[in-house]
Amino acid sequence: MWRSHLARSLHQHQDQPEVKFLQLATVGIDQRPRNRTVVFRGFLENGDRFQTPLQDCLKIVVDRRSQKPEQIAENPWAEACWYFTKTRSQFRISGKLQLIDHQCPDLELQTARIETWQALSDPARIQFSWPHPREARIHFSKTDPPNAAQPLSTFCLLLLEPTEVDRLELRGNPQNRWLYLRDEQGNWTEQEVNP
Amino acid sequence: MWRSHLARSLHQHQDQPEVKFLQLATVGIDQRPRNRTVVFRGFLENGDRFQTPLQDCLKIVVDRRSQKPEQIAENPWAEACWYFTKTRSQFRISGKLQLIDHQCPDLELQTARIETWQALSDPARIQFSWPHPREARIHFSKTDPPNAAQPLSTFCLLLLEPTEVDRLELRGNPQNRWLYLRDEQGNWTEQEVNP
Prior knowledge:
195 residues; Pnp Oxidase, Chain A; 4 helices; 8 strands; globular
């Protein structure tokens, strides 16, 4: 359903590295919205077979020292907005976030965290060894890449488990729009709505 | 300060129509974040000379029947996230929203609303005559464009008045990042921070 449309949009932009950039909104501890660009790291595989099943989870990586962890602890809800320029499609993906840090005792989730670290590039991994984000600038020079097998303790995996998706296709006059809702049993329903 | 960097990014992408697309996050009445792509319609001109001065306001257009007006009435805070692919720059623009609808009694703001309507294209104006957004789809066909001089009552101007801007330049290893804060007197200060 919505995932097949998303997969098609991703496929049609595979020549553009920034196609994996999406905007993730959370609510700050001051109750103000926060919004930043993050990189889509694929869907969590076999999450439905986990001890605590997880469905359709988008993988994102996060620095434990960024503001997201404390925001998520207070309000786990998020909405990702993902716009595709060629297909002129927008996906608004709303759901709950789950942060997997180095202390997460769940073995399946900890394995997913480690595998996500291993799949990163050196330039992506090295960022987790930089000085504390958002603090006064320290002029640090290049450092060696960290161990590619074992994640740094600053490295967290962030899962967005969608419960509502709003798909807008700007092509066509008028435009076309669909809402997808997940029910308690994990089944998705689709409704076509006015744009 | 941050506006000159934003102007440069806009200039360097002037061949790409989607450069004016940014993601606007608000907080829903259910306290969950909401995030959608909107079109930047320029800065409000001479806002500093208004009876109630407004500074550096980004102009966005909104349908009164969308979910934004009721969200803004409860929580006027927003954060826009604007990513530029060529320059690899991200601007996170945080501030308060002000909705200018057809009943707004402030003459300067009402004039700004009308002028923004007049500056839209016919395809942009026509959307405000479509059936109620997010309701079950009505298969309507093309309609004539509305009066270009006088806005429809569904048309609102939305102003985002920034009080904090976070600029991240992904180019460079390490990356570069600055925070801009507006004080009570409306003056901006700049601080370089770790990415």
